[in-house]
Each structure stands twice: as C-alpha cells, then as structure tokens.
Amino acid sequence: MTPFPTALAQEPAGGIAGWAAGLVDTLGGPGAGAAIALENLFPPLPSEVILPLTGFAAGQGVLSLASALFWTTLGSVVGALALYGIGALFGRDRMYALWGRLPLVKVADLERTEAWFRRHGTKAVLLGRMVPIFRSLISVPAGVERMPVPLFLLLTTVGSLVWNSVLVLAGYALGDRWELVESYVGVASKAVVVLVLAAAATWLTVRLRRRGAEPRHRRA
C-alpha cells in the first residue's frame, strides 16, 4: 500500500485528523470505514474531518476513490445500525417511563413526537443523514419506533452515500487544502446547534409560561 503522503506540508500530525490518517494509512478503506462507524457512535468525532481526509488520501493513491466511498458508506451504515439497535433495545415503554420522570414535559409531547415520526420518519431518516449532528441521532428514534430494518438500511445507505460522496469528493478535489471542507461544514454544524438551542429555549419559555398561568386560570 502506498504510504500516507508524509511529504506534504498539510499532513495531519496529531489529533483526530492524525488518528484518522493513521487508520487509513494502516488499514486503507477498512480503516476509513472504521473511523466513520465510530463517528456515528460518538458524534464529537467529526465526519467533516474524516471524510475529506479520506478523499485526500484517495487523491494521493493511498486507496481508490471507489474504495473510499464504499468503506465510508459501509461504516456509516454499521454505526447507524448499532444506534438503531440501542433505540430498539431501549424500547417504547422505557422511553415513556423515562419521559414521565422529566420535569416540564408531558406524555402528550412524546405522543406527538411519535405521531410525527410515523408520518415523516422516512424523510427524517433519509435527510437526517445529511444534517450535521442529527446524522447519528436520527437512528435512535428509528429504533425506538421499530422502523422496518430493510427500509432503515436502504434510507441510511442512500443518505450516507450522498453525504459521504460530497465530503470525500471535496477532499479529493481540494488535495492538500482538504481542511477547507472542515471549515465550511463546521459553520453549518454550529448553525444547527444554534437553531436547536433556540428552539429548545423557545419551547422551555412557552412551557414555563403555561405552567405559571395554570393556577390563575383555575382561580378564574
């Protein structure tokens, strides 16, 4: 196997990029797949680093482009299936029991979430694979709701292939400037976090106001 391109100034020397580079250098495509499988299980491992780096390695002949896309997509599916299994093992009854112990939430909230997932679960799993952060998380409710495994695998494979292809090909095209991909996707990830926090703050504010208004309503 051709060694990882050590002569380039942009060679990752440490951190997550160095770890991923070591896996690809040592194991080739299966190493890239293992890194992405772990990224699904531990979202703090950023696919926006691992995937462009794999594309960069493909451009340097460490592995073929087809191998990069195959193994990273397989890794995505394996990681997502593990999270699906966790959701299925946790189960609906345990979810309701846990939900009932949480403050400021109602069983009706969970029931509405379930109803939404039943209506839009197919789109959520497919498109969620292309959204930073939710790429991993979407597998858990799919398991809780027991989405048919063949359908889950199909949607996960298609969605993962699209996401992985974009980032791997970007790294392949950019060469030793592959880190630019991380910068742009990182901005998108931060935007998602901000939107989620804003939505959570809005929901919490509304719920607290309703809870505070209930006694006055009863006295009236």
Largest sheet: none
Radius of gyration: 21 Å
Oligomer: single chain
Class by helix and strand content? Answer: mainly alpha
Give the overall pLDDT as a whole number: 75
- Helix content bin: over 70%
Number of strands: 0
The outline comes out as: elongated
Order of helices and strands: HHHHHHHHH
Q: How many H/I helices?
A: 9
Family: Belongs to the DedA family.
Subcellular location: Cell membrane
Protein name: DedA family protein
InterPro entries: DedA_domain (IPR051311), VTT_dom (IPR032816)
What does this structure look like?
Helices cover 80% and strands 0% of the residues. The radius of gyration is 21 Å and the shape is elongated. α1 (15-27) packs across α2, α1 (15-27) packs across α3 and α3 packs antiparallel against α4. It has 220 residues and is an all-alpha fold. The chain has nine helices and no strands. It is found in: Cell membrane. It is a multi-pass membrane protein. Belongs to the DedA family. Keywords: Cell membrane, Membrane, Transmembrane, Transmembrane helix. It comes from Streptomyces roseolus.
